[in-house]
Design brief:
- The chain is of the alpha/beta class.
- The protein contains 7 helices and 15 strands.
- A 7-stranded mixed sheet has the order 1-2-13-14-15-5-12. It has a two-stranded antiparallel ribbon with strand order 3-4.
- Strand 13 and strand 14 form a beta hairpin.
- It is globular, with a radius of gyration of 17 Å.
Amino acid sequence: MLLAAMIGLLDDSARRRTTDLLGLVSQRRDVTFHIEEMEENHEKGLGISYTRPDAPQREASYDECFGRLGEMEKELGSSSAVGKKILTNIFEAEAEAHRLPVRDVHLHEIGRTQAMTNIAGIGFVSALLSRDGDEEFVCSTITTGRGVVVVSHGAIRIPAPASAFLLRGLKNEQGSSPGERATPTGIAAVKTLVSTQSDVVPDRFSRKSIGFGTKRFGGRLGRTTLYKARNDLTTKAQGISNE
């Protein structure tokens, strides 16, 4: 959702170029990247999804993940350090959760092409949005969700252990709807990008963008809303997740 919302803040030319590049990066790895305009309750935004042929998914090592990310960033023409910082935050949180050295951690869902493309894309687009050098990201209180989520390790409580470590120092709440509304990837991205948190929605902004997810919470699609306010990029995060 975050990547879709970020793309929505770009001007038309940069948006087309970015989606074309992300499509090529995915295609080279036998994954199809989809971005489409969506609308719910008179709110319009963008949604991202991926499709790939059925294939066994194996875990990815530290070196494999960073190698894969580096290749994607090179193909995007990205020199941003954001993607690597996001991935580093994820590995450090997983290492702490599993009580392992960082380089001994292997990623399951996050190590897949879809998640790695999201990470590379967030790094690439963040540089485009911050190219004037005076912008900052501000995030509202993160809604984590509650209950149980089923992952490759089995059923775990929300927030997942790695998410709980990433949430340290960030304002967060469970919210009223069951389900995972903030994944480790989404939280790691916020932790990397955000300079401060505030629940005040800007009253004056030049652009607003919504990134829709694929899951519903309380009958409503999960979403991340971004406002470009003067010199700030203020993130109204109503559920940050990795599509």
